[in-house]
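Q: what sequence does this backbone want?
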């Protein structure tokens, strides 16, 4: 939402919004990133949902987490498409409808972040503390899943309720692109988002360390470490949009033209967040399927060898 809001709202302050949009490299880059995210992310997340939907009953917590992650990512990308249309055309909407639109968008991206956090905790305990994870009953697993969605609905409420009109005199008060979240509420929201990312990083770092101490084949260790290293890299990249957003918030607090210009140049960095919705299916679903196929292939070869020897 931040990158879409920043891109189109800044463009709207010009007498020729379209020419300003295409003349600013950061806005062009942001648009390209957003389009690529939707073109790549929507089909892959739909494929994950289709593949898993028929196997959810009685399935493991891992599969249900990946299904919920794909669902939240897909909703986020659909919201991104709608956000682009809304902020580009600037339809006349009541303040309550603008609040609802902001809430749905923030709910989707917050839920996705919360599910990633739960996946990192679940994988840590499932791999390194399997006995403890086994004690978590299926009913409690459902509670955890419901909890991340409920939390995703509660966290956006303060920034959405703080939504206000921009102070620009020529701003259209009935357009969503001329609405803004108060800096105080946005600081809290970004701080919570950074905290969630830190939890993901901490648990994957502990997981990578722990896997090195576990007794297993070197080849298996290499595969697991390679996968978790990729996830860590993506998690680190996710900090860039959050820090870029902090610059924008600081610009609102200080009313600094310099910070506003820097924030405008970082608009494309903020949009990097949406690339995460394309990478999640590759990291959490297709990589796991590849490992399962290798395991199944080895099992079949082993059975063939037994049959031949008999």
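A:
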């Amino acid at each position: 939402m931040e990158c879409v809001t920043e891109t189109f709202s800044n463009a709207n302050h010009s007498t020729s919004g379209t020419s300003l949009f295409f003349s600013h490299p950061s806005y062009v880059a942001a648009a390209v990133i957003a389009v690529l995210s939707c073109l790549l992310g929507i089909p892959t997340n739909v494929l994950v949902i289709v593949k898993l939907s028929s196997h959810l009953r009685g399935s493991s917590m891992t599969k249900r987490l990946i299904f919920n992650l794909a669902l939240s990512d897909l909703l986020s990308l659909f919201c991104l498409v709608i956000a682009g249309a809304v902020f580009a055309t600037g339809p006349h909407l009541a303040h309550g409808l603008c609040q609802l639109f902001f809430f749905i968008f923030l709910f989707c991206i917050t839920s996705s972040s919360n599910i990633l956090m739960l996946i990192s905790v679940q994988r840590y305990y499932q791999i390194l503390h399997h006995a403890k994870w086994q004690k978590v009953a299926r009913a409690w697993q459902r509670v955890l899943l419901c909890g991340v969605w409920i939390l995703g609905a509660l966290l956006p409420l303060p920034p959405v309720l703080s939504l206000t009109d921009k102070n620009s005199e020529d701003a259209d008060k009935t357009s969503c692109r001329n609405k803004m979240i108060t800096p105080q509420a946005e600081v809290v929201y970004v701080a919570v988002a950074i905290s969630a990312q830190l939890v993901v990083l901490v648990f994957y770092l502990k997981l990578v360390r722990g896997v090195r101490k576990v007794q297993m084949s070197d080849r298996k260790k290499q595969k697991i470490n390679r996968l978790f290293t990729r996830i860590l890299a993506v998690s680190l990249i996710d900090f860039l949009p959050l820090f870029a957003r902090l610059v924008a918030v600081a610009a609102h607090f200080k009313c600094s033209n310099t910070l506003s210009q820097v924030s405008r140049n970082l608009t494309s960095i903020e949009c990097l967040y949406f690339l995460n919705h394309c990478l999640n299916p590759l990291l959490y679903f297709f990589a796991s399927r590849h490992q399962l196929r290798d395991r199944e292939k080895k099992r079949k070869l082993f059975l063939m060898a037994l049959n031949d020897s008999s």
